């Protein structure tokens, strides 16, 4: 891919020559001159330990990125840790 084709927030397919042995998908978080910071979203189960060691982030050169039409649905996807907060009704707790 070329730098102009990479957009922040896009899901891309990538490969790493050293850290991960299999292709993976990631969300572009930051764009540098020749590479992009990816938050790893989908990966091969054999690379789980390496992904954990990398804190689910990796910088990849543009030449190892490829556009993805639809993100993989995999058992090994990182969670986005959504937290839901709800208000407790004070009147209900005071009636006890």
UniProtKB/TrEMBL annotation:
Biased composition (Polar residues): 73-83
Sequence ranges of Basic and acidic residues compositional bias: 84-96
Taxonomy, superkingdom: Bacteria
Region spans: Disordered: 70-96
Protein name (record): DUF2187 domain-containing protein
Source organism of the structure: Lactobacillus jensenii
Lineage, broadest ranks: Bacteria, Bacillati, Bacillota, Bacilli, Lactobacillales
């Amino acid at each position: 891919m070329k730098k102009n084709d990479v957009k922040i927030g896009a899901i891309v397919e990538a490969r790493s020559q050293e850290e991960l042995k299999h292709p993976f998908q990631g969300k572009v978080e930051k764009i540098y001159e020749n590479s992009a910071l990816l938050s790893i979203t989908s990966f091969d189960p054999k690379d789980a330990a390496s992904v954990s060691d990398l804190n689910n982030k990796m910088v990849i050169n543009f030449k190892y990125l490829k556009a993805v039409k639809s993100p993989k649905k995999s058992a090994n996807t990182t969670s986005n840790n959504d937290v839901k907060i709800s208000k407790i009704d004070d009147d209900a707790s005071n009636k006890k």
